[in-house]
Amino acid sequence: MFERLREDIQSVFHRDPAARNAFEVLTCYPGMHAIWIHRLSGALWGMGWKWLARLVSNFGRWLTGIEIHPGAKVGRRFFIDHGMGIVIGETAEIGDDVTLYQGVTLGGTTWNKGKRHPTLGDGVVVGAGAKVLGPFTVGAGAKVGSNAVVTKAVPPGATVVGIPGRIIVKPQDGDEQEAKRKAMAEKIGFDAYGVSEDMPDPVARAIGQLLDHLQAVDGKLEGMCGALKELGSPYCAKDLPELREEDFAEIKDEAATTKAG
Questions:
Q1: Per-position DSSP letters for 185-248, written without gaps between them
Q2: Which keywords does this chain's UniProt record carry (predicted)?
Q3: DSSP state of 209
Q4: Shortest CA distance to 75 belongs to which of 93, 48, 61?
């Protein structure tokens, strides 16, 4: 029991920079209190003491503002940040190292008995106000954006935003290419705001294509320079013109304004 308690406290330090010490986590984190109360209510539920389990669960809801049905299955190092307004249904299953923020609902879309709530894989992060509704799986490592409404299965490692939820970052789809784009953006001194994971718009795609083209040109230039050096030419010793950050300041400001809106 004490080992699990220590593990819970450490999980807070790993995911909340505001946590200062163990005593503060023990006494001032309602998300932790809700999880500990759920372990008691879940144990009672498993022993068949349904009414008592619901009573303990209801006490936890009154104390923390977080409602976790005693029938829900919760993994290790589960972290609820802030937590007010969270609802987790009876047949929900939560893996290890999952993070939920305030206002999240893991709910159902039917009154039929049986599995009717979602399953969250290991390492899933669900943003504030998001609703995950239905008996499907959100794959390990996936992220659900704030206020998204998700009603379909999410692949492992994907990012989902919007109403209805749509996948904007697919797992293992262009990860290598994305890394190359970021490397090229850093090389030329450009803040590639348009290719960030949370801006899946035409501007993002256009800038991504430009970075791909620049990378191809850069590769050809390196090959040509190598060939010229072998021939004894000093041509490639010249430095390329520097791209100044202030030249892109207006573009960055416009992008920030668009993103905020």
A1: HHHTT---GGGSTT--SHHHHHHHHHHHHHHHHHHHHHHHHHHHHHTT--GGGSPPPPPPGGGG
A2: Acyltransferase, Amino-acid biosynthesis, Cytoplasm, Repeat, Transferase
A3: H
A4: 93
Per DSSP, what are the bridge partners of residue 166?
161
State mean pLDDT over 199-205: 53
State which amino acid sits at residue 31: G
Q: What is the pLDDT of residues 76-126, one digit of tens each?
A: 888 888 888 999 998 999 988 898 998 999 988 878 888 999 999 998 989
% the chain with pLDDT above 70: 74
Helix axes 202-230, 175-187, angle to 10 degrees: 70
Joined tokens for residue 209: 């294509």
165 contacts 142 by C-beta, under 8 angstroms: no
Q: Is beta strand 166-169 parallel, antiparallel or unpaired with respect to 159-161? A: antiparallel
Instruction: Name the CATH superfamily for 2-169.
Output: Hexapeptide repeat proteins (2.160.10.10)
Global pTM reads 0.61
Comparing 256 with 58, the larger pLDDT belongs to 58
